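Protocol step 4 of 6: record predicted structures for both targets in the notebook before any analysis. Target 1:
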Amino acid sequence: MAAADPPGLAAMAPGGGAAPVARPRDPVWDTAKFIAITLVVVGHTIERYADSRLMYALYLFIYSFHMPMFAFISGRFSSSAGLTARSARSMIRTLIAPYVIFSVIWWFFGHVSDKPHAFDLTAPYWYLWFLVALVAWRLTLPLFAVIRFPVTVAVIIAVAAGYFPAADWHMAISRTLVFLPFFVAGWRTSGGLRLHRGFLAGPVAKIAAAALLPMAAAACYVWAPQADALALRPGVQGATPYVNLDWNPAWAGALRLALMMLAFVLIFAALSLTPRRAPRLADWGTRTMTVYIAHLFVIVAFTTWEAAFGWFDSAWKFAILVLAAIVLSVMLSARSLDRLLRPLIRPRLTWLVRYD
């Protein structure tokens, strides 16, 4: 496989898992993927500093739509035709195998860094949940293809899931169901490419998006105490049922629905502002899987360096931290790193997978 993923796999976010879809490649989607993965890197970088109101607000803003955006783009490039030999090989190589490999690596990393955790493939380690979710979404998409109102049904499932205590972090059940509507909506979006050639590309949409995104970020700062009281930080992560969030059952479903609607609005705003012609960003966007898998090793190593951690204690220092996270995203998008990690991220597994 080339250093950059082929169109069908590179279209995925963070990379791989859906059956490649024979659609013309539009670099705007790769650019959108790079923007989304950079938000992931920034979000994970500032997570330990969320005690600061400024960082809490930025964290809440990013997490309100960046993983929904990944799910949306993943759905956009997924096929509802069912599992074929080709898509099964892709799923094993780019999702299941990396999930197992990096679960082992993180288990080993935890032991050598004196932060051991039990090895349990039913409990995805931190960010590896998205690989599990992509497998589930890909396998169930043919079911949604025969439903008259697939997005509506997915939204109902996501809202209802929060009322079941068993829908928690095991096998990423909660997040898989919570972010399901975005995946289905991405798949359902008619034409996909017309999304950027139609209304979202118009001046009205761009002006509205340019105003909306900073307003949403500012609102996260202004209402940070109220958001914290409502446990919106774990709420936007979608990892736990309502009972664990202390959300009143009477309004918990409505709150999750409101957060989902907000995420859709922010996704479309971000897509509207995504540049149509940014070849460098688009090129980096073809290697988001590498960034997704590798970035947390750097961040964990950095955040355990207490001297550096304690230095970030003011707004201008936080700005440096965010800039460093953006630079990290760019550096991890290098072709050389993608080639180096290819045996772990996209192993061929000829001993296991048939290619005949």
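Target 2:
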Amino acid sequence: SASDLGGSARIPSHYTGVSGISVTPRRLSAKGIVSSIPNLVGLKGSVGLIADKPETLASVLKLLLENNRQYNYDPLALPIPWNSHLFESSTSLRIGY
């Protein structure tokens, strides 16, 4: 994992042929992560994940988000559960940069 404010997870992933995603700020807990830019006002970084392929990212996110694990660990994390319907649907999933 990496912190991602300006593409710290996504850009290296792009150039090295792996997959990376930056989740919505506070979607995953940042508890225990030290900011690389202390006292930065107005910008919130988020947790970025890097994996060998998109399926691995989905599996990791599912494990982290199911059963409100993030919210139970850190009440500042958003209590939004994993939505498996998005991955079971025949409708194409569109992910933007």
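Step 5 preliminary note on target 2. The mean pLDDT is 82. The chain is about 30% helix and 15% strand.
Proceed to step 6 after PI sign-off.
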